[in-house]
Amino acid sequence: MKHLGILAHSAEGSALCYLAACHEGSRQLGPHLHPDITTSVIAMGYSMPAWERHALQPIRATLAVTVQRLLAAGCDFFVCPDNTAHLALQAQGPALALPGLHIADVVAKAARDAGHRTLGVLGTRWTMEGPLYREALARQGLACRSPAHEDRAFVHRLIFEELCNGVLRDASRAECQRVIARLAESGCDAVVLGCTEIPLLIGPGDSPLPTLDSTRLLAARGVAVALGKAPFPSWRGGPVH
């Protein structure tokens, strides 16, 4: 088995990814079994000023240090359970110390395999307004739509003021359901939970549309790679083609 590294950025999402990977390992290998997993994180707060300036290079440099630490711990490859962080990871720069899975490509392939055609995307404003999912879904021949401006502002605030701090409120869940319903009205046939904390609040039974849980999809693919059941990644950061 390969040693899986989790390149963490936000705490709640990376913790959910770790648990999901352990549970997937047990499902495939038996009780209490899973591939070796190492998680490393440099606190996201250090990168928040750069995010607010949309300065991707210093964020990429910080994430690259964490990848180097995963290599030093013996990891063979990494997953990063933070959608927005991939905007920095896929920016131009030196090759990362380990190959990794690209979360948006994992989600896009799952959407294609499920027969979806037009995906709504929830996430931080950088994820919803940036090229991350638009490009990944286009590579699979799929379309991408973002919520309306006021809905994007709500989801962004929800992520940083509540979900990243472990706060789960029924009122916020209801508001997310309203946002997803509006995406359905605009023609979306599924919704990407494109922030790794959103699945803590919205499960499949909560959503007016079928959901693509980026956290659990990434964890499952990471375990499949570790077990030799999925291709070993070659992406070491930089643009994805």
From TrEMBL:
Pfam families: Asp_Glu_race. GO terms for molecular function: aspartate racemase activity. It is an enzyme of class 5 (isomerase). Its EC number is 5.1.1.13. It comes from the Bacteria. Transmembrane segments: none annotated. This is Aspartate racemase. It comes from Variovorax guangxiensis.
